[in-house]
Amino acid sequence: MSELLNPNAPPPRPALPPRPGRDRRHPTYVAFVIHRVSGLLLALFLPLHFWALGQALQGEAALEGFLRWTDNPLFKFAEWGLVVLLALHLAGGLRVMALEFLGWRARQKDMVAASAGIAIAAAILFLLNVG
């Protein structure tokens, strides 16, 4: 199209091949995003956790009221979500540590799959109330 508008324009350059690790659909990029997002969500949970711990400092009645509130099924589902976030973040962190200490390996996709499997297993075990 540019040749029609400007006959002296240089020919278009061919597209560069994708660089490893730069493709946003690559499993390692998805693992990176999951690790970051789970870390941010866990950080957002901390003030609520500290507030819950503060209920124990206010006395037995305040703590008992909070614990009754946690029997809500919606809270139980949120608790399961928290365990999923913790498992994802832990498994992603183990993958990053393996990458740091073992160096880049051609089997990065296998490491992503293993860390996802660990996280899913932990979430299912918690959901089934095993352990």
Helices and strands in order, then pairings?
Blueprint: H1 2-5, H2 27-57, H3 60-69, H4 73-102, H5 108-127
Helix pairs in contact: 2-3, 2-4, 4-5
Highlighted features:
131 residues; mainly alpha; 3 helical TM bundles of succinate and fumarate reductases; elongated
Percent helix range: over 70%
Shape, per Cα inertia axes: elongated
Domain count, please report it: 1
CATH architecture: Up-down Bundle
Strand-and-helix sequence, N→C?
Answer: HHHHH
Q: Which structural category fits the helices and strands?
A: mainly alpha
CATH superfamily: Fumarate reductase/succinate dehydrogenase, transmembrane subunit
Estimate the strand proportion.
Answer: under 5%
**Radius of gyration over alpha carbons?**
24 Å
Q: What is the number of beta strands? A: 0
Number of helices: 5
Short structural description:
With about 130 residues, the protein is mostly helical. It has five helices and no strands.
Describe it.
- This protein is mainly α.
- It has a single domain (24-127), classed as Up-down Bundle (3 helical TM bundles of succinate and fumarate reductases).
- Helices cover 73% and strands 0% of the residues.
- It has five helices and no strands.
- It has helices at 2-5, 27-57, 60-69, 73-102, 108-127.
- Helix 2 (27-57) runs antiparallel to helix 3 and helix 2 crosses helix 4 (73-102).
- The N and C termini lie far apart (65 Å).
